[in-house]
């Protein structure tokens, strides 16, 4: 279920299957969640304040390229599609109309997308476009990396289940 407050802030989220999955917390942000499932640190490149983390050796200027570089150091590479691929997991980097980084979403093992909304909740959404709004802008770059063998196996099951579900709805 999606609260009226989140539905107002993210108008496309409800139509994209948006569901709240955690309580609000300021302990971690979307970058920490997408990069490392890190629920203990706020990853922020352009500050050295206590409680902020950024990996050594990754550029720190806060640009879109800075975040692309972060994910490239984690084994991701640029791709053109957010569609689920069995052998790859993906992230979507968002920019606003001024070309500034605003958000990153992570694809779950099932192919659904997962976002940490700043100091708010984690939410699921079916596509990266479901989170498009004036605050977050829209996906600028999709990146992918190879999955581990067990993850490939589980993703295969999810993919076949979605195919059979679609066929059942047609009949």
What does this protein structure show overall?
The chain has 171 residues and is an alpha+beta fold. Helix content is 26%, strand content 24%. It contains four helices and nine strands, in the order H-E-H-E-E-H-E-E-E-E-E-E-H. The strands form two sheets. It has a seven-stranded antiparallel β-sheet, with helices on one face. A two-stranded parallel sheet has the order 2-3.
Helices, strands, pairings?
Layout lengths: L3 H6 L9 E2 L9 H7 L5 E2 L8 E2 L10 H10 L3 E3 L8 E8 L5 E7 L5 E4 L5 E4 L12 E9 L2 H22 L1
Parallel strand pairs: 2-3
Antiparallel strand pairs: 1-8, 4-9, 5-6, 5-9, 6-7, 7-8
Structural Rg:
16 Å
- Please describe the biggest sheet, giving its number of strands, its sense, and whether it closes into a barrel: 7 strands, antiparallel
Lateral strand order in the biggest sheet: 1-8-7-6-5-9-4
Number of E strands = 9
Structural class given helices, strands, pairing? alpha+beta
* Poorly predicted runs of 5 or more residues: none
What is the helical fraction, as a range of percent? 25-40%
- Any idea what the shape is? globular
Count of alpha and pi helical runs? 4
User: Mean pLDDT, nearest integer?
Assistant: 92
Proportion of β residues? 15-25%
| Intertermini distance | 29 Å
Order of helices and strands: HEHEEHEEEEEEH
